[in-house]
Amino acid sequence: MNSSEFRRRGKEMVDFVADYLEGIEGRQVYPDVEPGYLRPLIPTTAPEEPDTFEDILNDVEKIIMPGAASPACTELETVMMDWLGKMLKLPEAFLAGQVGEGGGVIQGSASEATLVALLAARTKVVRRLQAASPGLTQGAIMEKLVAYSSDQAHSSVERAGLIGGVKIKAIPSDGKFAMRASALQEALERDKAEGLIPFFVVATLGTTSCCSFDNLLEVGPICTKEDVWLHIDAAYAGSSFICPEFRHLLNGVEFADSFNFNPHKWLLVNFDCSAMWVKKRTDLIGAFKLDPLYLKHGHQDSGLITDYRHWQLPLGRRFRSLKMWFVFRMYGVKGLQAYIRKHVRLAHEFEHLVHQDPRFEICAEVTLGLVCFRLKGSNKLNEDLLERINSAKKIHLVPCHLRDKFVLRLAICARTVESAHVRQAWKHIQQLATDVLRAEKD
Amino acid sequence: MNSSEFRRRGKEMVDFVADYLEGIEGRQVYPDVEPGYLRPLIPTTAPEEPDTFEDILNDVEKIIMPGAASPACTELETVMMDWLGKMLKLPEAFLAGQVGEGGGVIQGSASEATLVALLAARTKVVRRLQAASPGLTQGAIMEKLVAYSSDQAHSSVERAGLIGGVKIKAIPSDGKFAMRASALQEALERDKAEGLIPFFVVATLGTTSCCSFDNLLEVGPICTKEDVWLHIDAAYAGSSFICPEFRHLLNGVEFADSFNFNPHKWLLVNFDCSAMWVKKRTDLIGAFKLDPLYLKHGHQDSGLITDYRHWQLPLGRRFRSLKMWFVFRMYGVKGLQAYIRKHVRLAHEFEHLVHQDPRFEICAEVTLGLVCFRLKGSNKLNEDLLERINSAKKIHLVPCHLRDKFVLRLAICARTVESAHVRQAWKHIQQLATDVLRAEKD
Fold it and tell me: What's the rounded Cα separation, in Å, for the pair B287 and A312?
């Protein structure tokens, strides 16, 4: 949607809201629809080609308004998470469908998804061990629980461990910054020998530092064999899996109990929208379910409905699936794929430019939209370069450490980025590199 | 703002966004401002009288845009939480000010605020006990920790205990559904005698069931004496404390370590916006702080800035203080007070109507906007009445249990509610009561 269409459509939406408020007394306070009303009104998959804005807005009036906030808010979310799951070609087990045991939920952030998965895994292992040995207290079990992630995992994994009151151990990653079978198996054996209880592994697809990928096809079977919950955090990279050429990066997801990525990072859905799927929704519900009378409703025990409050940390919820519905339909799957591909192409364009300048080196494989690079030379040199880049305020880079190297990261992530911006950024970086190298010699 | 002004202003905002996006390449990628830039540009308290929309929008351009998303997002939040804290006449210790040790943060829901407080309290007590007895493991301590709330507290308190891995005990409330000193002290003594470690008390101001108030002036000193973290959950009732005539309900807040209420419930700020204050922000930060390189920034250790990511469960944040700023200025404190007062007046009007019909009884003191009532007679009779009310779909009521009684709850909560709506609802209820009583006789 270009700027002039945005002005027109935005103003129509303002009128839509004002009309609604003016006519609100004529509306019923409670919907007439029955649970499950929405799914049959909506296609089972996202459209390949874009829909028109008129079509979408007409559907809001026809499909959403009769279901008001509830149950429309819940039901659209379930269907949108199925749409998105199918776009990623997630195994059937993760979809809700009409009769599935899995399903998706929108969380606020990947941090919350990781925490929710960890808590569900904790509850599951505590119950299993207490069933086997009824005398065991929760405290005695929790003290022995250990969760694992690669040493490249996001800090939110360590944080989830802090909050959940369990140990988190970092598995040394390999030369490509990936968690591999051998290192994980070694840690598990050592900890089991010490009487600890491994219960949770987070595999990262697309690490924050350098967009490396844990080896799911190695790690997955170990988790299955050891009866350990496997959670996949693909916060950034997940969006790319809608493209067939990147879907192989997700191979092994079939071993996971839960999977999460953030459409708000790279799929044009505004913040916040963190998409999480589980294979067995009873595992999540088991960790959180409490049913006071003021939250009871007639369909509670019918098995027909989804109570998302048992899937998450907060009780209240916003209607976040609406923005997914709008984006998926306005772009179509093809439009979203084209968006991802353009960013990856621009990242490779930047990578190519870096390769042509012998003063620089690429520090990690460029798979998606992130390029890790540095001046050959000391960390000090690269810290100085970063300082100059960020002080100039023409572009903004966030660094990382890869092992003992201080590394610069160029992320392609703006909606309107073009090749010209990339070339301009590189020219700017080259100029500042010349300055910093000259200053070093002086 | 009436509907026609909303149409005009809404469309201006659409143009504002489109203009911004069209001109984005001309803007700097990183702001020039220094930490702390915003506070001096904004008054120290909310205005008593409404500001004009033009003034607010001009201030967005003048005050927010130069600070971009960061640090404006953080700094406006700190100042807005100070404004709101002053509106409630919170003790100075809860305010951030320029040099305070306390301060406020916007959480997504009261559930999250309770959980964050419980986790901070847990970390604090674990560290204290480990400092005294270095051999103690976290697991050994957690197994003995006990948190308390009244038997009328919201289910999210029990849920916070589940998530935090600690015991939660319900303190029997008194005849007015309030937690009192004697019952709490008794539970604490009994648990301490059994070797347990009381560490956290949640006092509720305005319970979900019947809007009862725990006795803070009794409970507070006990918590101080026992060195137990006191968290106050005033999710609904908190908004009323901006009126001097209701502020006494908050007396005793000076004993609390943390306090929370939801402006999204009753202060005209859209969902989600849950306002939480702490006396010592280092207590919160201590529970969550992790600092990976990719989240480092130059001002990190300056002591000048607030890193809200250490105050909450998610890492990412939305710019939720903007809506507080708009609402506080568009209504002014007087406008917000008038809004609260109108709702309370309408609740009393409904209470008065109920009193005049001898078939009905009022079941709990009406203090704010909630009226708990029922037909004199069996629970079955009242369940039938509720069923008829909610099936008719003219109004919608959510019930509760008060002890063994099934009770109907009428909540005054819509922005545009008037006396005519209340009288119409009552007439409708009376009619359905007549039907249900006749059906019972047949």
Answer: 21
